[in-house]
Amino acid sequence: MAKNGSNGDFSVIGKPVAFVDAAGKTTGSGKYTDDLTMPGMLVGKILHSPLPHARIKRLDVSGAEQLEGVVAVVVGKDAPNKYGILPVGHDETALAVDKVRYIGDNVACVCAVDESTAERALELIDVEYEPLPAYFDPEESMKAERDLIHEQRPHNIEKDYHHVFGDPDAGFAASDVIHEARYIANEVTHAAMEPHSTLAAFEIDPQSGEPGRLTVWSSTQVPYYLQHKLSLVLEMPMSQIRVIKPLVGGGFGGKSEVIPLEIIAAVAARKAKAPVKITYTREEVFWAHRGRPRTIIDLKVGAKRDGSLQAVSARVVQDGGAYCSYGVVTILYSGALLGAIYDIPNVRYDGYRVLTNKPACGAMRGHGTVNVRFAFESAFDEIASKLALDPAEIRRRNLLKPPAITVNGLRVQSYGLPECIDRVIEGSGWGARKGKLQAQGSVRRGMGLGCSHYVSGAANSIIRSDMPHSTVNIKIDRDGGVVVYTGASDIGQGSDTMVAQVAAEVLGCTLRRVKVIAADTDLTPIDIGSYSSRVTFMNGNATLRAAEDVKKQIVSAAARKLGCPPEDVVMRGDLVFRRGASLVEPGREQSAAEILEAKDAPRGGPVSSNAPTVSGKVEGQILRGSLQQKRKEEGRRDQLTFEEAVVAAIDFHGALSGTGSYAPPQEARGGAFKGSGVGPSPAYSYCAQVAEVSVDEDTGEVAVHKIWAAHDCGRALNPVSVEGQVIGSVWMGLGQALQEEMVWKDGLLINPGMLGYCSPSAAESPEIECYIVESVDPEGPFGAKECSEGSLAATIPAISNAIYDACGIRLRESPFTPERVLAALRERDQQKKLNLTEGVSPTAPERFREHGGATWFAGKGPARHELDPARTGRVSDVTGD
Amino acid sequence: MSLPEFKFVRPQSLSEAVAILQQHSPAADPLAPRRPPEERGGIEIIAGGTDLIPSMRQRLFEPEFVLDIRAIRELRGIREVPGGDLELGALTTLTEIERSAIIRQRYPVLAEAARTVASPVIRNMATIGGNICLDTRCVWYNQSLQWRKSCGFCIKKDGDLCHVAPGGQKCWAAFSADTPPALLCLEAEIEIAGPAGPRRLPLSELYTGEGDARMNLRRNEILARIILPRRTANWRGAYRKLRIRGSIDYPLAGVAVAIENNGHIQQANIAITGVNPAPVLVKRAGGLLAGKALSESLAAEAADLAARTAKPLTTSALTPEYRREIVRVFTRRALMEAGG
Amino acid sequence: MKKQLISIRVNGRTHEIAIAPSQLLLECLRQDLGLTGSKRACEDSSCGACTVLIGGTPMLSCATLAMSVALDDDGHGPEITTVEGIAEHGSLAAIQKAYGDWGGAQCGFCTPGFMCTVSALLDHNSDPSEAEVRDALSSNLCRCTGYMQMYQAVRAAIEAERKGRAAAGTGTH
């Protein structure tokens, strides 16, 4: 692990530490939302639409209301205000008001005394639907003239963007080699272990005697957005709403916007006049979705004979599902980050985010970049092989030269990609092994390279304003306890620990002194949430500034005590001393308290329960208070303990608190073109990976043996945590590459469970060797950047390129299931074609029949409208160009 | 989802259990074969619980009674009987089977197949009896009540249509247990307890080949034990399983082979699972292989027979033609491994 | 359905509770006994987040009826250990400490299941091979870690146990 330690001279950061909340997780004592109960709490259960697109003609909930144990039944008209995570995409309501738009859309909610009563009540709700024609394929949906999914979106296009940077036509004309292909990445979802859960409770207002303030505990990555949307829907001021985030069992983007149950629980608590908790079943989690959309990428890449890239053009179509969600951002990220990792002078991008009658797609780890990265890095390899260049070499020839501004206006200040490539090439033995691995029988081995990058938070927030993206407060009391109030949402990535480390490093105190109060809108100042890998960079910077603010006060008071100018005061190892006067040996910082106690405790002994009483008490704290009082009277000192310095500062300033905030600088906010608000970030992470795979040519089964993953995260504040994030990202990419896929039949998800949606188990998960590259960003907190998402995108092309190296087949559709691999092998050998269409509905467009049954599973699906093209088999074929 | 309400009975002896079943079987037709899933009501037997409980959550079963047989001691244990056969109590867990020294030594293909079932924790619970009686599976069937409602239910439960083979009146749900093909290859017999006392039959006769009424087990009967005959002891064997994940998954296709081999093949069996509504012995495979020396070409010929026996449909992930092809590859490989 | 009074033995204590016959052990632990460490995550008995030890063997509490593990009239029945019963005398067990130190737990939602699975493995085999550890871990799904750091954690716990100290990983990074 030494290879991944930080080099800087730090006390707390750069060292592996256990998460501050680790014990709660390993003992089971930590509380997640579904672990909470309240007296009188009701259970909420949601009735979902069985049809993909239908008008609600009649909704009769009286049967359910009459069931013993049912307290309230909530319907759309109880809270008809629209909301959505993006200001441009307010297209959701708590429950369907007039029509349903996907199987699983929310129709009504029963609040009852227990789960089984609520479930029985759902059966008693009578809904009459009028089916409408439904759309399942984005390229078909784009042709729609009538029965639109949302009336305000012509042709069911949520948003399209057409960006041109440089002169792509000239770039292609100047190219010696051009590669063009269609790549498809099928739909995947977060599958966080914790199903979403929300508990909502109103308190009675003592003045009016009516229900007043609302408190919501929820499994969310974005407490402040939840507070904001609740305020819109419930028509309550934000100040009357408190959102608390308990432990969250993983998010990956699936909890990074307001999920229907969060709004429904609050509306239900209002109507039922009692606390209501809703926890999704696993199937409901799949319906809530917000995962990575199925993406069709028509990519064209041109390069000179020496491998230098001249132009890139991409047409990207995303199957967005029935609501906007983060869709506009996703389609913009796909364009903005497509080329910005390399030095590419000319880029054309045409992106279409299209509505379909399926659960809404949204943000998922590596938001917007993953599928286009798969396409680009695969195409880059194809160019390399046409030019007979080594895949590593061609990448090295196209690197940016920082500091740089990319052709689409992204500012790059730190760029560890060259070192990332070097590390994985060296670590994997690429030069000696690539292309030379021995086959064993029908099993062939190969190696592949992929690179990726990602933002450290978006430079422009969703709601455009100049307000800080993060604010952090710190309070220190006379006992020397440091309390950090941060809005950052720890969802398992360890942000509470990061915040504690940054505060402890700045204040020169031990980690144990620092308590983090996080993600409670009544207590913690605004932070816009845990998404886009923004927390370490932005909340870390805010924490750093808050700690500097409070440190300034301590230092000025300490300077008087130490009789030196403030700039000579050092806070380190729980001591405050004059520069050069440390009595503490390096490595013994933790023992400052012991030194003090040994020196100053009455009768020479350490402070213990046998120590003399002070004011009739024996607690060390009060005793220490008296010691401090004693020292205060002693006059000038060489060093103070942290607590003494704190007491001095409080005596001097009256109170000890600090605040800090962070907003990305203007220079980092990107260009002036339409859509330029998405993509710019104060800093970017960079990743390179080598995958070693074997392909069984008889079965098409792919096994990944090892992945070498290098990630440039600026400075690693907590190496064990950085490694965990990088490995977790790579592993999640592996799932998308090989085995995860949402399979549909007319909008009905065929595999809505952990059994059918095959996220990898330990059995087939490979060894992942992580190299941390520390480019030290000039603006990151201690130089830190993103580490939790960027690596995911490199894994898929690294694996597809390795499969090519192993057996010479190019897989342009993910996941690379054994049947897709076998079909490609047969095609390579010009053998009998493997028929992948038996499972496909005969009404599916030809391209789906070619690609297997992922989208148009055969069988009788839900009832359909008579004009429905898929029902009548009149679906035409389009090439998409 | 919570479980549907039911009454719980936990008999201490096999005779008590059979009496309870008899008492709650429909008076009109107590001998009718069990046709799970039953209509609402009836009685369901629970052993490990790993199949029944998730299915009850999905309202595939809503029994009036659940009969827990785990307290019945006479259904436990592995023992050698006079004559050299080996008897396995139906409650023997799959973990016990994969760890049993005598099974690993004499019937290695069974231990190997048991080791591939689901995950280690599930094998701590799941029993050999339950694995034999495992309900058939289909993506149109193993879904929540709400989900099944969305597509008008299916012929196996609450509906009148098969989504896999529209137009037909047959249920094609795939039999998806791993140990039965191994047991078929070992020519295992089973003993069934009923009101008239025990009856014994070859395992191959238990299955009907129907996806819904999958077993010839009457409503008042319990599978009590499995008998591994002495004559197939020490046959070499191999089991190959197609799955997406290396753990947890049900088989998308599975092939077991068992061979008595001393230079030339004396006797051999091949059985497949995961692709048909029942686990099936590949007909004529034994005849083809017997008396010959195993070679790649002979194995390929047998593999053709197995692939022709496989009738995969769109009941499961991965496409039917691929799964049929895998039956071919796995058969060839299993034979070469067992015969090597 | 009328509830029935049963006794079950969990983490060394016997509890008398009234439950419906259809109550799962998982629900009984979480709702009746307030032991919310065991998690409901998949509902198709595939993920292992609800794993507890029944008579020392890891099993899924979401596929176990509470009635099936009730004590009989003589007070005989299986001892159930949940994640709350893994900690030793109010301190972290070696495996718990090691999971914290080595990043074996990120979001922590699957961790209670892993704690039960791994502690059963180490109870029965104090020095498992890499393959045995991998096999045991394959019962439980995790979505954060990719399992890699869990191997380091298990190794560290074995090492800590071997050295006979409760604190795994200290100073070894």
Describe this structure in words.
The complex is a heterotrimer of chains A (881), B (340) and C (173). The two termini of chain A are 50 Å apart. Helices cover 28% and strands 22% of the residues of chain A. In chain A, the strands form eight sheets. In chain A, strands 3-5-1-12-9-10-11 form a seven-stranded mixed beta sheet, with helices on both faces. Chain A has a six-stranded mixed beta sheet with strand order 7-15-14-13-8-31. Chain A has 23 helices and 31 strands. Chain A has three domains: 38-131 and 194-249 and 255-288, Aldehyde oxidase/xanthine dehydrogenase, a/b hammerhead (Aldehyde Oxidoreductase, domain 3); 141-189 and 290-421 and 669-694 and 704-828, Aldehyde Oxidoreductase, domain 4; 470-662, Aldehyde Oxidoreductase, domain 4, CATH 3.30.365. Residues 588-593, 595-623, 845-856 and 870-881 of chain A have low confidence and may be disordered. Chain B has a domain at 7-71: 2-Layer Sandwich (Uridine Diphospho-n-acetylenolpyruvylglucosamine Reductase, domain 2), CATH 3.30.43. Chain B is 29% helix and 19% strand. Chain B contains twelve helices and twelve strands. In chain B, helix 5 (108-115) packs antiparallel against helix 9 (179-185) and helix 11 (296-309) packs antiparallel against helix 12 (320-339). In chain B, 64% of the residues are buried. By secondary structure, chain C is of the alpha+beta class. Chain C is built from five helices and five strands. In chain C, strand 3 (51-54) and strand 4 (57-60) form a beta hairpin. In chain C, helix 2 crosses helix 5 (148-162). Chain C is globular, with a radius of gyration of 17 Å. The N and C termini of chain C lie far apart (56 Å). The model of chain C is unreliable at 165-169 (pLDDT under 50). Chains A and C meet through helix 1 and helix 19 of A and helix 2, helix 3, helix 4 and helix 5 of C.
Descriptors for this entry?
heterotrimer, A: about 900 residues, alpha+beta, Aldehyde Oxidoreductase, domain 3, Aldehyde Oxidoreductase, domain 4, 3 domains, six-stranded mixed beta sheet, 23 helices, B: five-stranded antiparallel beta sheet, four-stranded antiparallel beta sheet, 12 helices, about 30% helix
